[in-house]
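Weekly sync, protein design subgroup
Attendees: M.S., D.O., the rotation student, P.L. (late)

Item 1: inverse folding check
M.S. brought a backbone from last month's batch and wanted to see whether the design step gives back something sensible before we order anything. D.O. pointed out we never logged the input encoding, so this time it goes straight into the notes. Structure tokens as presented (405 positions):
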């Protein structure tokens, strides 16, 4: 049996049918491929999220500590602090530092959970460490956000300087390298893989830089904080540094005389509470002049405190914020160390007020009592935007000594 066409265009009609079937098949194939592509992209996105969250768990994190050291002390140990690392096999750490101030010396273990597999210096400004997790180390609950722990200490030595800087302290950043949306590109946790050319499979890791503050002279600092725009009380920490040099922060009785300037329109000083230890007193007498926004008090450091120290938390300043908003939206609380134990109206200063003396940044002392040393760092009080907290409808908060809410 053979096919017979009554008209010459019937083969053309048949070819059109074949073409239509072919186009339908082609469209179906494209649709299938498109569907597969969408599914693949969704799978990759889910896998990426799972990796970022530590396989459906809390996100692994690593940060470097913030350390303080006096010059010319030999070394400073910077902790490498980890969190939620229980689903990882190792950690790659890249640290960039200022070679003019610091040099890498060695490392110090912080326990048996982590061991150093490799240390690779890259020139005088970068060091890379590869750590491996001990498989016998205890594992925390993988579904809960765990506490921080110290994996290792990176030890740096201070570079010797022919001339000391003008500032009484210098802060230098220890960088963990490139970061993309908070995740480290040079510093990250990893899992082991079976691929010979790429044995480390990176795990998205939240990273944060650290710092080293080097103190070259005596000085006093006030910590920073934040408040909402309503009348309230707040506390700011007071730190003292003493390098044991002549005409330093403390006299022979280990007592420092400190003056504090503040804007009396927006702030008032309620009192000064000593931290015992290291201070010998808890309630410190204050000679305050609220109309001028100035106060002077003395702090004695306990005998068991070393002769040389930096950023020693000696007291807390209790302040009252009036609720008025300053034009710059920030307030400064400026401390200074007064030489010779000057109290108000005892020194030369400006018209007999011992709080003022030479320009604190000039590196020089004025004549007579009340001369201020150049070492000081003001506390910055910033203002939080209004927000609603359940049970706290007026947006009031309590600010701790370190500005925490």
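Designed sequence read out in the meeting:
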């Amino acid at each position: 049996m053979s096919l017979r066409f009554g008209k010459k265009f019937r083969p053309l009609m048949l070819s059109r049918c074949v073409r239509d079937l072919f186009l339908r098949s082609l469209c179906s194939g494209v649709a299938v491929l498109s569907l597969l592509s969408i599914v693949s992209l969704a799978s990759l996105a889910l896998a990426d999220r799972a990796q970022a969250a530590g396989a459906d768990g809390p996100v692994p994190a690593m940060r470097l500590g913030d350390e303080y050291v006096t010059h010319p002390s030999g070394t400073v140990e910077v902790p490498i602090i980890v969190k939620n690392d229980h689903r990882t096999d190792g950690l790659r750490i890249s640290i960039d530092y200022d070679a003019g101030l610091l040099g890498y010396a060695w490392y110090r273990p912080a326990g048996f959970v982590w061991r150093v597999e490799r240390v690779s210096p890259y020139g005088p400004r970068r060091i890379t460490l590869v750590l491996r997790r001990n498989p016998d180390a205890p594992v925390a609950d993988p579904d809960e956000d765990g506490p921080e722990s110290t994996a290792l200490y990176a030890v740096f030595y201070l570079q010797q300087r022919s001339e000391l800087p003008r500032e009484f302290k210098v802060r230098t950043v220890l960088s963990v390298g490139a970061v993309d949306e908070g995740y480290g590109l040079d510093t990250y946790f990893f899992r082991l893989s079976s691929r010979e050319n790429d044995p480390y499979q990176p795990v998205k890791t939240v990273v944060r830089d650290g710092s080293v503050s080097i103190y070259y002279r005596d000085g006093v600092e006030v910590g920073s904080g934040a408040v909402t725009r309503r009348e309230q009380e707040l506390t700011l920490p007071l730190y003292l540094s003493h390098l044991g040099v002549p005409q330093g922060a403390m006299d022979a009785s280990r007592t420092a005389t400190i003056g504090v300037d503040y804007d009396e329109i927006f702030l008032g000083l309620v009192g000064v509470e000593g931290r015992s230890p290291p201070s010998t007193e808890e309630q410190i007498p204050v000679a305050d002049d609220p109309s001028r926004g100035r106060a002077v008090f003395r702090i004695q450091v306990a005998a068991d405190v070393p002769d040389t120290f930096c950023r020693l938390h000696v007291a807390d300043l209790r302040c009252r914020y009036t609720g008025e908003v300053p034009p710059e939206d920030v307030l400064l609380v400026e401390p200074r160390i007064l030489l010779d134990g000057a109290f108000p109206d005892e020194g030369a200063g400006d018209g007999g007020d011992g709080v003022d003396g030479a320009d604190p940044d000039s590196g020089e002392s004025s004549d007579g009592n009340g001369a201020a040393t150049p070492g000081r760092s003001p506390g910055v009080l910033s203002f939080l935007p209004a927000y609603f907290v359940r049970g706290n409808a007026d947006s009031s908060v309590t600010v701790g000594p370190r500005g925490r809410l």
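Discussion: Residues 76 and 334 are 29 Å apart (CA to CA). The two ends are 93 Å apart (CA to CA).
Action: P.L. to compare against the previous round before Friday.
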